[in-house]
Each structure stands twice: as C-alpha cells, then as structure tokens.
Design goal:
alpha+beta, two-stranded antiparallel sheet, two-stranded antiparallel ribbon, 3 helices, globular
C-alpha cells in the first residue's frame, strides 16, 4: 500500500486452496520493467502503483517458455489507488495482508522463530481482522522469487534495538 504496511497478494483458481502470491505478468514490446509493473498491478488488481516507488529486487529464470522473472517491490498511490478491483480473467482473488498476517503465515509454515510476529516492530504490525490466531492463507514455495520478495518485505520491518534493518 502507500504506507508500506500492507502487502498485496493475489491468487489464481488453479492454485491450492488458500495459496496467495505476488502479482505477475509480462513486459510488452518497448515497455520498461517499471512501467510493466504498474500496468500489471492495474490490470490484475485495479491498484495504482506509484512509478517512482518501483525498486527492482531480484530475478529468476523461468523455463516456460524460456523467460526471465524480475521481482520488484513498490507502493501504491494513496486513497483510491489502493482499492482492489480484481480482473477475474487474471486472478480469482487479491487481498491486502498486514505484517502480522504474513509473519504468522511464515512462522506457521517454517516454525522458525525468526518469523514469529513478536520479533517485529509493534508500530509496523497492524492487527485487523486479517489473520487471527492462525494464518488464513498459504505462501508461495520457498524456492520462488515471490517468496523471496515476501520475505524481503517482512525483513524490512524487522526491529532490533528499536531500529529497522
């Protein structure tokens, strides 16, 4: 979102029940990576990405059909730019997830203490009706670029001695 405190994830109907992942798409001929990210977010989920906020993160080869996936983290435009309008031809659902929900999903899946929600800056954890005592969604597999992006987003909120790393 525009504050960086929520993460937009989408799901395709073909995925296992409850699985959510980062939005994805293809770059059109003559289009920059950053512009493609803004366009895909608008097409798939109806959100408006603030172009200057797009930061390239990582890449991963994708063998179908010999493509390169490029991961990026960005922020939306505040207000109406954060309203989700799912294109049902692209996604079954898209939702905003807060830090607590994402940490809980990571912790429940891995049982690694480093992901326990109590290890994160309380000011960054927005607890609402998403993700009660148990996480209500599944993350992408650990070997994926989407998982790397999600873990990086969470780690940006990690707090040690009152400072973020």
């Amino acid at each position: 979102d525009s504050t960086g405190k929520r993460l937009l994830l989408g799901r395709q109907a073909a995925w296992p029940p409850g699985r959510y992942s980062c939005l994805a798409g293809f770059i059109e001929a003559g289009e920059s990576v950053e512009s493609a990210i803004c366009r895909e977010a608008a097409e798939e989920a109806g959100v408006v990405v603030h172009l200057p906020s797009v930061k390239l993160h990582s890449s991963q080869s994708w063998p179908f059909p010999s493509q390169l996936m490029i991961g990026a983290i960005s922020q939306t435009t505040a207000g109406a730019g954060e309203e989700i309008h799912v294109d049902e031809n692209e996604l079954e659902d898209a939702q905003w997830f807060d830090l607590h929900s994402v940490c809980l999903a990571l912790y429940q899946e891995t049982e690694q203490e480093k992901w326990h929600p109590s290890n994160f800056d309380n000011q960054s954890v927005v607890q609402d009706d998403v993700g009660g005592p148990e996480s209500n969604f599944l993350l992408p597999p650990p070997f994926t670029i989407a998982r790397s992006l999600i873990e990086s987003w969470v780690n940006n909120h990690r707090s040690r001695d009152g400072t973020r790393t």
